[in-house]
Amino acid sequence: MHFNKHVFTISAAALLLANLLLPDAAFAQKIPSLKDAFRKDFGIGTCLNNAQIEERDPATTAFIASQFNMATPENIMKSALIHPKWDTYDFTMGDKLIEFGKKHKIKINGHTLIWHSQLPSFIRGIKSADSIRTFFTDHIKTVAGHYNGKVYSWDVVNEALNEDGTMRKSVFLQHLGDDFVTEAFRLAQQAAPKTELYYNDYNNEQPKKRAGCIELIKKIKAAGVRIDGVGIQGHWHVGKVPFQDIEESILQYAALGVKVMFTELDIEVLPRNFQGADVGARMTANEQSNPYTAGLPDSVQQQLAADYEALFKLFLKHKDKVTRVTFWGVNDGDSWLNGWPIRGRTNYPLLFDRNNQPKPAFEKVIALKK
Ligand code: G3I
């Protein structure tokens, strides 16, 4: 007893000393690695913001490189940023991301060529279908062409569907008609023959939206155009993860001959009156809307861990169909869910806390591989 206590005291002291003496980067290596644990099953990704791409904090860079082998730019490849003016493209940050990927052996998923949101402001001034078509064609050719052979894959079209499976009334649908999705893939295939091409959406595990998504994929294929995979974003809510719909979707999408990916995974723990990720949606703050500023209660922490454990069990069960699982953020502090649908909340949707320390959800996920 006395001996055990002694050993414990020595090892605790050693740990403390290591914590103090080792640079964060070295200490980060002591946390088991997600990408290594799941290496034989599927890729493990994160989204990256400007500070991370620019490697402003070496400890963060080392942590990212130790945990992830795939990455998606959170914002910098969206059209508003990469194509700010009619005849001006800005590849500065995108090119830095490519370098980041090369240096740290991280495959990059380009995000995203055609999306109704975060469009350049000049689009608002365009009234003719011809000009929209010119923008659409030039944008895909130029951006996909620039990164051909540099990015591993593209989210060619993002969020083209409504919840009922019909097509969203975007500027592209209005001016170019139903075929714009197929056309986007055709142009991307020509400009980026060496790149995998995906359709990406949220709630497309839900039966009606899934049916619309299946129709889209069939239509692209029927036109003789290549589509390699479908992304289910995976913005879910704690205690309400739709496991059955997710499994059904993996099976139905895979039956079409496309890869299935979970592309923006996070699990919301704060009060919300709707599911999904419509960036236009907002909620009004009240006294109940930001309840966990002092920390996450244990009951919620355990539910979050159980949800992540069940999700990864499902992903492993279908590892022959699921090729990548990407988290939408490295740690809780990075998450867009701190600012949406209400600004300034304290959210806890990921596997690592604000200091990149593993949460109980991480322990449950990594334990599946022990
Ligand atoms: O960069 C400007 C900054 O200059 C300005 O001062 C500040 C003021 O609000 O805004 C900054 O831009 C913000 C940008 O993120 C970069 O931080 C935008 O307001 C904000 O709207 C934008 O949010 C992004 C959102 O997409 C926009 O649609 C989130 O970071 C990003 O996580 C989120 O990602 C989307 C996926 O692309 C598609 N699926 C849904 C997912 C979550 O919404």
UniProtKB/TrEMBL annotation:
It catalyses: Endohydrolysis of (1->4)-beta-D-xylosidic linkages in xylans. It comes from Spirosoma linguale (strain ATCC 33905 / DSM 74 / LMG 10896 / Claus 1). Pfam families: Glyco_hydro_10 (PF00331). Its EC number is 3.2.1.8. Residues 28-368 form the GH10 domain. It comes from the Bacteria. InterPro entries: GH, GH10, GH10_AS, GH10_dom. Residues 1-28 form the signal peptide. Keywords: Carbohydrate metabolism, Glycosidase, Hydrolase, Polysaccharide degradation, Signal. The active site is at E264 (nucleophile). One of its GO terms (biological process) is xylan catabolic process. The lineage of its organism: Bacteria, Pseudomonadati, Bacteroidota, Cytophagia, Cytophagales. This is Beta-xylanase. GO terms for molecular function: endo-1,4-beta-xylanase activity. It is an enzyme of class 3 (hydrolase). PROSITE patterns: GH10_1, GH10_2. PANTHER family: ENDO-1,4-BETA-XYLANASE A, GLYCOSYL HYDROLASE. Belongs to the glycosyl hydrolase 10 (cellulase F) family.
